[in-house]
Amino acid sequence: MKIIGLADPEVESSLRGAGIGMSVDEARSIAEVLGRDPTLTELFCYDAMWSEHCSYKSSRATLKEFLPSDAPNVVMGPVEDSGIVAIDDQWCVVISHESHNHPSQILPNEGAATGIGGIVRDVNCMGAMVVATADPLRFGDPFGPKASKVRWVAEGVVDGIWQYGNALGVPNMAGDVVFSESFDDNCLVNVVSLGIVRRDQIIRSRAPPLAGEEGYDVILVGKPTDSSGLGGVTFASEALRAEDEETNRGAVQIPDPFLKNVLFKANSDLFRLVRESGIEIGFKDLGGGGFTCASSEMGAAGGFGMEIDLDGMHKAADFPPEVLSIAETQERFLIIAPQELREKILKIYNEDWDLPNVYEGARASVVGKINTGDRFTLRHKGEIVCDVPIRHLTAGIRYQRMEKERIYSEAEPKISEPEDYNQVLLKILSSPNIASREHIYRYYDTEVLGNAVIRPGEADAGLIAPVRGEKFGVALAVDSNPFYGRISPYWGGATAVAEAMRNVAAIGATPVTLTDCLNYGNPEKPEAFWEFREGVKGLAESCKNLWLKDYRDERIPVPIVSGNVSFYNESPQGSVDPSPVIACVGIIKDFDKAITMELKAAGEDLYLIGPRFDELGGSEYYQTIFGVMGANVPQVRFDLERSMIYAVIDAIDEGLLTAVHDISNGGLAATAMEMAITRPARYGMELNLDGVVCGDLDLRTDKLLFSESSGFLLEAKAGKEQRLEELLRSYDLLPAKIGKVTAKRRIKISRFGKTVADLDLDEARNAWTRGLVEAMR
Amino acid sequence: MLINLRVWLKIPDAEAATVKNTLIRRLGYGKVLEDVKKERLISIQVDSGDPDELAKAFARELVNENKESHKVLIDRLEFEEGYVPVKVALHIEDGEAIAIRDRLRKRLGYQNVVDIKKATVWKLYFRLLKPEAQITAREIAEKLLINPHKDSYEIMM
Amino acid sequence: MRIAVIQFPGTNCEFETLVAVNEVGMEGEIFRWNRPEGELSSFDGFIIPGGFSYQDRLRAGAIASKEPVLKALKEEAAKKKPILGICNGFQILVESGLLPGLVPGKGEVEMALAQNVMISKGEIVRRGYYCDWVYLRHDTSPRRCSGSYLIEMGSLLKIPIAHGEGNLVTASPGLIKKLNDQEQVVFRYCDRNGRMINEFPVNVNGSTESIAAICNPEGNVLGMMPHPERAFFAWQLPSFDPRKHRPNEPGPGRRIFESMKRYIEVESC
User: Fold this and answer.
1) In the prediction, which pLDDT does C161 show?
2) CB neighbours of A145 closer than 8 A, spacing ≥ 6?
3) Cβ-Cβ contacts under 8 Å for C162 (sequence gap 6 or more)
4) Cα–Cα distance between A270 and A370 in angstroms, integer?
5) Lowest mean pLDDT among A277-281, A724-728, B62-66, C73-77
6) Mutation site for B-interface testing, chosen from A227, A253, A254 by largest number of B Cβ within 10 Å
7) What is the CA radius of gyration of chain B?
8) What pTM does this model have?
9) What chain B residue is nearest to C91 in terms of C-alpha separation?
10) Which residue of chain A has the CA closest to C235?
């Protein structure tokens, strides 16, 4: 395409006419480096590689500036497709976290399914066995003006997730759903995947040492390349407009969990071949940016160049080279291996696992060769269609975006105390953001692989025992409150980390790493970019002050080993609430010691740790009962938070607790009720709020009950109360005994000698189980 | 008034390919079977409204334009020459069809939707003359395409 | 005692099934579907595990049932060797005529496992895929069937289900009666007190007469929708089950695999 010598408007119209999204300046800089006009294929490649989604051009500097990614337990940081953290000397947990927001808004089923498909590939390609997924989801208001669309999206997304995950055979172990009108036109579909790998069997994504000197093969495996998803990556980097919907639809990829299921098994055979032969290979999955992104990154990471012949690619039809190079056809992997392994590798895919008969046109093909040069070269029908410096392509570009503080103007409301607390409690229980998520997770196979110890609905985090014969358990929880983000992006970030870690601690597991998926608006708008930076700062503060428990003496921050940034989550109606979604992985040495949140025995005492502050900004109470947001967003008091988390882990390890639930949205009231009404709902409780420690004096009863300040509600094991109090005090925590588990089927709350609320257990459970069903009907 | 939506995939139809593969490799129809294609058939019965407008609206809701094409037929159902169309539908209660009906009626407000029926139409292309093609199509329907305990079939020629 | 755990493209429960087979002392081997089918005859027993073979294309189990390995499996069934079909495995056995197997040798399809439908108080409250723990009641005598050889009549087992097509239906009049008369209904969905209630959530998928598992007249072939391999160890049970934290407690699903082993020991003498 002609660039050099043309005026800006002409270059602009050439680029747009060809469907290329990059700016004129970006195009000119490429021409300058190449010393000539770039070819169409080259422009498409750069367009994909330099898109926000692939290159992180707006975010990389900020992430590097603030987020801790290293720690003694980190085996691989955020360098390759997944992060890897050590469990013990032998075993490692692999984790990856991504978003698939824009495609899911347009085609919810395919978008969400492809999201799952992509994330499990990222984990598998490290040589790991994929053992679980989690789905943090954000949808619009199911009772608002766009209710019909919101419900259509929500239903489609859940269908996409279960249809893919169940068929593939990977259990869902955690997730959450938040509804807010800010997501009406921009749903958030984030996905997390966990894997297990032996430390000495990790497979890297880069072209291995000697690949260039010995001219290793580049082998493409999987679905035949087609034009699907063309522009998917660029598309994710542009805000959605209604009239673009038709064009936007063309950008969605088509998932195939069946082919993936077979590919994973074939990959297992490949891993075994690699182990037995003792030869290092490079292995990577193809995602955003298609073939060009995966291959060029593998080459550059190894310090090599490569020469690819697009005619060698198995393809669905005779597509032009610019399509073949960046199409986002799903279910594909790339192998870089020595030629001596070629026959064996091709046999695994093409014969043993019979790919061509599993999916028409699927196979493994040799498409090119690694060399010791520094260029990325593509040939097509005998012509060179792309020949660029490989590192220039992969390094991407960096932007200094402007930031400007977004002023939050809503103040704390003047509200009067409710007359009928029973009604308020029932209303909170049936609200879509508090109600039981059972309606959704019953679609998810949570039991496949036979590893589930604690499954969705039983506790604050899921727990799996992924290796037979080993006693360790791996926990996972996901969190982020967009309402806190709306009030203060900084506290939105900080609280997300704290909550995810609390959730893992609540079952007795020790947090060992975090991942993040940062969903924000348009970074070219200073206020949105400010929100992003504030969120990252908040995340970082929490990580740095809530140290890894096993390294607390050295004050090692909890590392973030994998992550994703999703910008442009906005429509003409506005941007989404700042949503930094955090996933926390925890390890428990003996999974048998882990505990769940349902009340266990009548007569046992209930303790509250975490003082109640006047922090109802963004709370469920303010929103559901009064329709206001408020301003006093919950903060993270780092010393307190750390002490609580450590204390709970120790108490569970010592066998002092029988049930634990952390306090988050809905406050103490929701936490207490959930412990009683979650399956099997065998016991009631009596709470006396006189025992509650308040951080702010004279906290009115409703504020006390619904404040979302951090904390835990603990059920002490009979006979262990004294030891528990001793342990809590050793952590400078005030053990507030606030109630008892009862055999009566009632939830009774009193204060100052008077009954505040007296709910029938079954009525409460009914409201809670029906809430989400109504919202998604 | 019956609005028939014939919907087929623009992208490769993996299910049709598998059925074809099984018929040729496993059930011995390699000599006579040329190709297998598949369509979804959604039949929406309405008691009022403009059929063309409704058809457009229903198609928007039920057809995935990113990967499917469709054709609307009002109060009739026809298929092209060159293949034997085998319509397969559940004869037991079709929960999915009921769910679609409820969605159109309740969530989207189309109170004029009376009933929805769903079917799959297998398009069998043979290297045979029409009479033999029909007989073979019946055989294939009974051997593979249906389980008679929940499905029934009809040759739509 | 060699057990073949048959693996089709799309199968996804084979590894934990293999664990269960090995834990009870049998020698399990994953048998890929495209191996020479003659190799099946060297095994003493067979399991078709759960999953989405061929992605449930056409209908669950339909495509797999046409594979050569199923023809060989029918010959092994005729030799009275034990065969266990779990979930998708059950669907494959039904589509290939091995279950209910009332007309021996002909391999006629006599029933279907159709889409789940959850009916409560006369209304459809939910459809489609469902994953949860259920109670099963053993409605036949011990030693009637290879997979429940060691289980007493009336025993309750708590085992999880995870499927979208488990609603057993038949268009053959009198078939269900025959199954009842011939004690071929092995497990039914029930509540925690063993009561059969033909409503969701007790009848979790709307299956005729709450049938969850059936065997053939000879008793060597068992097909069940629930997944015993996922309830093999007590620690796999849901949180509020008192057995979960008992050390060395066997899970409810273990008895199925132990039964297969006992059947082989006894019947192959």
Assistant:
1) 98
2) A184
3) A166, A445, A446, A447, A448, C50, C87, C129, C130, C131, C227
4) 20
5) B62-66
6) A254
7) 17
8) 0.94
9) B147
10) A453
Write out chain B residues lying below 8 Å of A228, CB-based.
11
Is the CB of A352 less than 8 angstroms away from the CB of C32?
Answer: yes
Tens-digit pLDDT profile for residues C90-141 = 999 999 999 999 887 667 899 999 999 999 998 888 888 999 999 999 999 9
Quick one: three-class SS letters along A59-115? CHHHHHHHCCCCCCCEEECCCCCCEEEECCCCEEEEEEEEECHHHHHHCHHHHHHHH
CA of B60: how far to CAs of A634, B42, B113, in Å?
44, 13, 16
- Tokens 């001596």 identify what position? A340
Nearest to A136 by CA among A177, A105, A166: A177
Interface touch C129/A592, C-beta < 8 Å: no
Cα–Cα nearest to C56, from C126, C18, C113: C113
**Closest-approach residue (CA) in chain C for B98:** C124
- CA atoms of A129 and A125, how far apart (whole Å): 9
CB pair distance less than 8 Å for A360 and B106: no
Asked whether the beta carbons of residue C162 and residue A448 sit closer than 8 angstroms, the reply is yes
Mean pLDDT of chain C: 95
Run of H or E including A711: strand A711-716
* B78 contacts chain C (CB < 8 A): no
Chains touching A (3+ CB pairs < 8 Å): B, C
Preceding peptide of A680 cis, ω within 30°: yes
Q: CA nearest C53 in B: which residue?
A: B18
How much of chain A exceeds pLDDT 90, in percent? 85
What is the ipTM, given to two decimal places? 0.95
Tell me, what's the pLDDT at A357?
84
Q: Does B150 touch chain C (CB under 8 A)?
A: yes
Is the pLDDT at A240 greater than 90? The verdict is no
C124 → closest Cβ in B95, B144, B148: B95
E strands in A430-569: 452-454, 462-464, 473-479, 510-519, 560-566
Note the pLDDT of residue C207: 96
- One-letter-per-residue 3-state SS of A286-324: CCCCHHHHHHHHHHHHHCCEEEEEHHHCCECCCCCHHHH
* A249/B11 touch (CB, cutoff 8 Å), yes or no: no
Dihedral sign from CA coordinates of B122, B17, A323, A517: positive
Backbone angles phi, psi at C79, to 5 degrees: -85, 5
Residue C179 clears pLDDT 50, i.e. is over it: yes
pLDDT digits (tens, 9 = 90+) for A104-147: 998 899 999 999 999 999 999 999 999 999 999 999 999 999 99
CA distance C50 to C47: 10
pLDDT digit string, tens, across residues A673-711: 999 999 999 999 999 999 999 988 889 999 999 999 999
| pLDDT above 90 for A83 | yes
CB contacts, 8 Å: A152 with chain B: 107
Residues facing residue A333 across a β-bridge: A221, A285
A53 is catalytic: yes
Provide the chain A residues 151-210 that lie in CB contact (below 8 A) with chain C. 162, 166-169
Average pLDDT of the residues in C261-265: 96
Tell me which DSSP letter residue A418 carries. P
Whether C63 has a pLDDT exceeding 90, the answer reads yes
CA pair distance B24, C221, nearest whole angstrom: 29
CB-CB: which of C52, C55, C238 is closest to A458? C238
Which residues in chain A are closer than 8 Å to B66, comparing Cβ atoms? Answer: 106-107, 110, 249-250, 252
Which residues of C are part of the catalytic machinery?
87, 227, 229
> Which candidate, A693, A694, A671, A685, places its Cα nearest to that of A768?
A671
